[in-house]
Amino acid sequence: MNVGDALPPLEIPITRTLIVAGAIASRDYQDVHHDASLAREKGSPDIFMNILTTNGLVGRYVTDHLGPRAVLRAVSIRLGAPNYPGDTMTLTGTVTALDGETAEIRIVGANGIGHHVTGTVTVALPGSAPASRGGGA
């Protein structure tokens, strides 16, 4: 892994089920995450994904790429354009810093209306986690 390396993109279909399940799993019972009528009353065209679900998807993106030995040390994200049902969010990442066994990765998650999430993930790479992907003991 080198500074400037890009992680492969990950496309995530934004379904009603994903939005509602993520809200329930994170105990976020705000009506804008599960009730389309109430979301519209509040000015949104539909329900939308909560930040905790987005945070989990960002973490999954990084650890899926770096392997099971990678440990998230910090996730710092900011939301932008909402994720609505029927859209697709594409996560991309770029290695911006390396310090020993620690990497910083810049994350962008874009959907059809713009950047849904931007931020950085700091991850510890114990031993040779990236080199051991794809087989080994």
Short description, anyone?
Helices cover 23% and strands 36% of the residues. The protein has 137 residues and is of the alpha+beta class. The model is unreliable at 129-137 (pLDDT under 50).
Question: What does the model show?
Answer:
With 137 residues, this protein is α+β, with helices and mostly antiparallel strands. It has 3 helices and 5 strands; from the N terminus they run E-H-H-H-E-E-E-E. It has helices spanning 16-25, 36-41, 51-66; strands at 6-13, 71-79, 88-99, 102-111, 114-124. The protein has a 5-stranded antiparallel beta sheet, covered by helices on one side. It is elongated, with a radius of gyration of 16 Å.
- Helix residue percentage: 10-25%
CA-CA gap between termini = 20 Å
Major beta sheet summary: 5 strands, antiparallel
Using the CA coordinates, give the radius of gyration. 16 Å
Number of helices: 3
Task: Choose one word for the global shape.
Answer: elongated
The number of strands is: 5
Return the string of H and E elements.
EHHHEEEE
The strand line-up of the biggest sheet is: 1-3-4-5-2
Mean pLDDT: 91
List low-pLDDT spans: 129-137
Give the class from helix and strand content and strand pairing: alpha+beta
In oligomeric terms, what are we looking at?
single chain
In percent terms, what proportion of residues is strand?
35-45%
